Amino acid sequence: MSSREADRTSSAQQTLDVLHDISQLLNTQLDRETLATCVSMIESGVNPEALATVIKELRRENASYSTARSPE
Amino acid sequence: MVSQVTKGSLEDDPNAFSYQYEKALRTLETRQVSSDTMETIDARVQRLAKKARIGIQDNLAEALVRTWAFLKTIASDDFQDDDEIKLSNLPEQMQFLLELAAPPLPSTLAHADIVLSGEREFSAKSNKLTWKQIMEEEPFEGDHWEGVFSPGRAYEGDTSPSFASDQESEAEGFLSHSGESQESETSYTSTPAPIGQILTEAVYTQSEYFQGSSSESRELVERLRGKQTWRREWEMDVNWNRPFNTADPSTFAAAVSRVMEPRVGGRIQVPKVINEVDTVRNILLLLQGIDSPSTIFLVDDFEERTQASIAPDAPRLMHISLDAYRSILTEFCFSATRLQEMRHFIRSVYAHRDERRTKRAPTMSPVFVSRTLEAFAEAVDAYIRDVDKWCAGREEAIVQARSGTGRQTVATLLSCYHEMKEKVTLALDILQDILRQLVKQELRKDGTTHHRGDVERLGFLRAKNLSSIHPSILSTRLLDLLVHSINTQLAIGEHPTACLLIDIFVKTAEPIWKLAGKWMRDGMRVGGSLEIDDLEQNEQDPELFIQFRDINFTDPDFWEQGYTLRREGEDDWEDNRTASYSRPQLVPNIFATIASDILAAGKVVGLLRAMGIDPLSEEQFQFSATTWGTFSDIYTKSQVEGAEGLEHMDVESPEILQEDATYGSRIVMGLLNATMTEHILPWCKSPNLKLKKLLLDDCDMMEHFAAFENFYFMRQGDAMTAFCDQIFFKLDAHEKWHDLHFLNKVLREVSMRDRKPWISPELVQFQVRGGREKNNISSVRCFDGLVADYTVPFPLTYILQRPSSAIYASVFVLLIQVRRAKSVMDHLSMKDASQVASGLDVGDLNQFFALKAKFSWFINTLMNFLTIHVISAKTTQFQVLFKKASTLDEMITSHDHHLAQLQILCFLQSKTAAVHRTLLSILDLALQFVSCFSAYLEERTSNGPEKPLAADISHKKRRHHQKRARRNQRNTIGFADDVVPSDVDSSSSDDEEIKEEDLEQDQTLPDITQNRSRPSLTSSISFAEESFTVKIDRVSDELDGLVRYVRKAVDVLAGGSNETSAVFGVFSFMLEEWDM
Questions:
Q1: Considering CB atoms only, which of B1, B20, B89 is closest to A37?
Q2: Would you tell me which CATH number, out of the four given (3.30.70.260, 2.40.10.340, 3.40.50.150, 1.20.120.1900), belongs to the domain B701-939+1025-1073?
Q3: Which terms are listed as keywords in the entry (chain A) (predicted)?
Q4: According to CATH, where is 1.20.120.1900 located in chain B?
Q5: Is there a contact between B93 and A48 if contact means CB atoms under 8 Å apart?
Q6: Which residue has the higher pLDDT, B794 or B578?
Q7: Using a CB-CB distance cutoff of 8 angstroms, which residues of chain A are in contact with residue B53?
Q8: Integer Cα distance of B720 and B738 in angstroms
Q9: With a threshold of 0.80, does the pTM exceed it?
């Protein structure tokens, strides 16, 4: 890995760190890995609002699914 | 992504997983919503930060703003086109996170702290170099200069987040030119000040402070300094020199300035400009007496900084022209000056008080310290502190609103002016006016010539200007002026100002109220009741409205004159032994109705304490030092009573309360007097009851009164008749009747006549004044100098030995005089009369007996009137009233009134002196008549009856002629000129008179009757020139004239409308019989 490549990786990492900080401050409940996925998806052209809606929907479904399974 | 979000919970159920996956995919494909721009994201972040601040989560807000700013910075620094995360996508990334944002949890706040500390570490790491180090290096050498001048990033070397936006957002709500602020709010790059300027000033002014500190601290300080409008570092973010724009008020001041103000060196001077909210903060500082960039306090003539003035380099406002700005500031300066003057006045009062406490004031110079004035100063001090607190509160509200932690508030010069006017200006004007009126009244007293010093005294109020005013005068005027101001403010509907003045008034009245309580509890100072050491402490307080005069407490005048209500023009250091009742009282109006009661109660308490009785020890009066209470308690009680009254009124006429806010306060002020009266009532009642019991039971007051009446009014009939007869006998015998031993002996003898002694003769002390007339037996005026003093035990002296008690002695003398005439007339022996009659003709005989009857009738009528209708009737009335009297003062008043009535009815007043003299003349005439008879009898006994009788007959015709002539000349006696004596009437009553005479003659005392057969009134009467019958005729005419004069005078007295007229009417009716 060249020096420039390393710098770029480090820079991207730093950006992601800061985004993660903001994510934590906004209490989005996204872990670092999920956030990285979401950031890459947005960078790929996914609409951020739609992505946020999907995540909210998934969380809701997951919560109801977990509730349905818990008595068993 | 689906598995990450669901955390693998759906992996066990492939169908569910695929369903969710498909659903997410569809959502992502179908939803095409436009994303936000960078500006929108900025605004959303700011809103979130503001929301966090409102929720007092400053760290979260700070962390959010800083992290976002940092993200933008590194994005602009490092992002390249081929970066994994592009700058252009940053708003979308943030939009995504903002969509998922949830309310903060405790863990969120903890993360904010971590972020802040991490950011500081990062900042410290990236800013290892200081400006000083950089400047010490050669220009543009070293790694840190690399990339500095890269295009588009000329001044973006500071990697620390900018606080400009934060600062501007704080100010956003308070700027009138919101367009400018909005613009600056969204700009996220700050323009640093010129480097050299900051470095030079920072190192120069705070080099020691920064020595050894990190660059981070220094930057922090610099940032903070940049926010401080009073520093040079402050710069307005809006350009001053902008063209005038009607839509932008912030261009107005500059436009006016360009036209109106002179240019220096052809260039427009750019003034220092601050926001209006900062000017308001400066004004609030001004009102608190603190210098600010806008205003300063100048030194006055007393070298005290009281005069508020606009600072020479006062920062300007962008939307107000210079003149208007100065005009507004001047208004504030006026009020601030007044406040500052009052602060200095209060300070001077406190200094005066401290001086009094440390050393006593010199006694020679009248320098006074008024506790009322001190209380007033304390009350005003509390008010000014309240104003200070209000100013500080306003400032706090402004700061909180700016920081977003408080509620929104309006902070403009106009609103501040209105608030100040309501809170400060009105009340302060009144308070200063009150103090100036006090000084003015004192100056007016000194004289009419005024000089510059007087004007200064009015201009610069200080305690020493009031120290020459006597405390009682000062307290009275101060309280009266306050009450007057309160009533005026209530009348004009200034309720807040009136309430403030009421508060000050209540506090100012406390010392007087406390002194009144002390006076009522301790009472007056009576000799012997206090130890010598205590005397000084118990000296009558000069501030109370009660004045002490240096009169011995055993003096009968002490009760009336010893302690009185103060009057104008009476000072303690002057020798005022007698009260000048013509001058107005010096009592505060609020105490006017109860001052007399307070005075009387204190006197009674002091008297009881002097006699060893605790006046407040009764079980029903459990008083102690604390139960007197404060004046504030009294006012609170009035408020409660007023509120109860208003509740009742609210039902009947609620519209009054709605329309007039001052109505309640006016009712409370009106009730204040009644509440005070109600409060002092039990304090007056208990001591008075005890004193009355003491006077009646222990001092035998009623027994002494009975002795007085029995002796002076001769109501002890037989004993006093014997007493008088003894004196008359002595007088007739040409012996010295006025010998004091003789008088005392006689009184001692007559006091033993009854089984029960009716008087203690040792208490009576005779005095006989005047010398020559004492042995003149032909006149009743020989008794004029007789004075009998009756000594009563203390404290009855306050009632019975007052100056008015001299009336007793006057009545006593009058009664003796009447008795003397009656006695002489009664003892005219009929045997002697018949001897005379043998030598007279029938007509002359009738005339002689008629005249004797006339004398007897008049003397008996006068005696009856005096004893029955005056003394007996009035004494009975007095006894009824006296028993009703509950206080010593009432007893004294009742007794004085009784004596005054007796004085009038016995013709002893100066107004009726002529009648009194006429009565005595009649009595003297009676004595002359008897002496004439005695002389004639002696002459006949020695010479035989024929000679004088022949002489009488020869003069008969001449007598009738003289008689007619005298009738014509009768107008020489007063207004009896039209009176024509009726010989027929006189002769018609002769038979009755003779019978009465016989009856009375039988009642004379046996031991002296024998000696009475020849009264020795014969000294100088001769019948050589005028015969007996002529003399009788002349005496008869004279008597007639005198009686008619008396009757006329009594008629006039009976025609009045006062209490005594009816009694005179009785006498007038009795005298009507004279003509019958």
A1: B1
A2: 1.20.120.1900
A3: Cytoplasm, Cytoskeleton
A4: 701-939+1025-1073
A5: yes
A6: B794
A7: none
A8: 16
A9: no
